[in-house]
Structures are given as structure tokens and as C-alpha cells.
Design brief:
Layout: E1 13-19, H1 30-46, E2 49-56, E3 60-67, H2 72-97
Antiparallel strand pairs: 1-3, 2-3
Helix pairs in contact: 1-2
């Protein structure tokens, strides 16, 4: 059963959390964290919002943001799709080298 849909309106403030599948590692090293932050900045340029705070843990993230013209669903979908592609490509390259 999924969670209830968030009510969205411009100026709304949200605390967003996201975990890896089965609490697996999202960030193996500093390079991964920097890529996530780069993608977060890219997302902010395409879909502007105010980022008040963030915390990148090994297996989950916290973002506190304030929306302007885009819903949190659109923002997180874009950001996490980009990061998943980066992460999966990195992991597949590691497996092919083994």
C-alpha cells in the first residue's frame, strides 16, 4: 500500500526522505555524494525550488525544500531518475571489470 498523495501548492514546505531499496547503500564514496549534489543543483535550475537543508546518509537522504512552480513529485522523480541512471551505470561498469 502506497502513501497518501501529498497536497502541493506553491510555497509549501516539505521534509522529503528516501531510502535505498531494502536499505541498501546509496552512496559508496564521496564521488557519489558529489554527483547527487550536482544533480540536485541541476534539478534546481530546471525546476526551481528553495532547498533549506539536506543530509546525505549512507543509505538514505533528507531534503527540506520549499516549492515554487513544481510539485515535489516532479522534482524528486527527475532527481532520483538521474541519480539511479548514474548509480546503475557505475555499478554495471564495476561488475564488467571483475
Amino acid at each position: 500500500m502506497g502513501r497518501k498523495k501529498r497536497i502541493w501548492y506553491p510555497g509549501a514546505k516539505y521534509h522529503i526522505t528516501s531510502r535505498g531499496i531494502r536499505r541498501t547503500t546509496l552512496f559508496h564514496n564521496e564521488e557519489d555524494r558529489l554527483e547527487y549534489l550536482r544533480l540536485l543543483e541541476e534539478t534546481m535550475m530546471l525546476m526551481p525550488f528553495f532547498l533549506h537543508t539536506y543530509c546525505l546518509m549512507t543509505n538514505h537522504i533528507h531534503l527540506q525544500l520549499e516549492t515554487l512552480n513544481h510539485s515535489t513529485g516532479d522534482i524528486i522523480k527527475y532527481l532520483h531518475t538521474k541519480y539511479a541512471k548514474y548509480f546503475n551505470q557505475k555499478i554495471s561498469l564495476l561488475w564488467t571489470c571483475v
